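Thread: assembly with ligand

MN 10:42: here's the input set. Chains plus the small molecule as SMILES. Want everything predicted jointly, not piecewise.
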Amino acid sequence: MPEAPIEVRLSTAADLPALIARESNPSAHFSQSQFDLMSDGGYYYAIALRDGEPLGTGALDCRASKLCPELKNLWVYPAMRRQGAARAITTFLEAQAAAQGFVEVFLRVDPDNEAAIPMYIGLEYTPTGDHIETAYDQIGADGQVEARVQVDAVYRKSLTVR
Ligand SMILES: CC(C)(COP(=O)(O)OP(=O)(O)OC[C@H]1O[C@@H](n2cnc3c(N)ncnc32)[C@H](O)[C@@H]1OP(=O)(O)O)[C@@H](O)C(=O)NCCC(=O)NCCS
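BT 11:07: finished. Tokens for the full assembly:
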């Protein structure tokens, strides 16, 4: 039987139990906080599913004064990778940006991210040459959360070039 297509849409409260069950660090309440950001406007938290099963999530943040709008927090569950979920989420969030009247989308990425960078290049993102220090929490194998700072490269895509 052919594989069911990937569906991408904005997440709903009904998705939260499945998303929370898949969190590697439940005490960070990541899915709930991403979902809650949508209620203030300018934030879009998308979910990709196949046959009703979550494959991953990503967000578009239209609230910042720079790098606006920014694609962020793209995460596909390890067992669900290389099926096109990240590409589908990114394309969906670009459409959200265009619907809001934006003509470009930004993102930041670790220059050593060997999975994400080919995907962004394939979707016609290009490095701007700028770099940004980004603080994040790294969860060790022992579950300990460690604050890290990483220098990310900024990428941009025009939504108007055909
Ligand atoms: C990066 C990530 C989001 C990709 O998710 P994915 O659903 O596996 O990606 P897709 O299946 O949509 O792949 C799209 C394209 O990206 C590239 N790609 C994806 N994973 C790759 C890998 N491990 N190595 C090389 N290229 C890769 C390929 O060009 C791929 O197209 P193809 O499968 O037709 O060759 C996923 O690996 C992930 O969640 N990583 C951890 C979090 C992260 O790095 N997020 C991005 C932060 S900026």
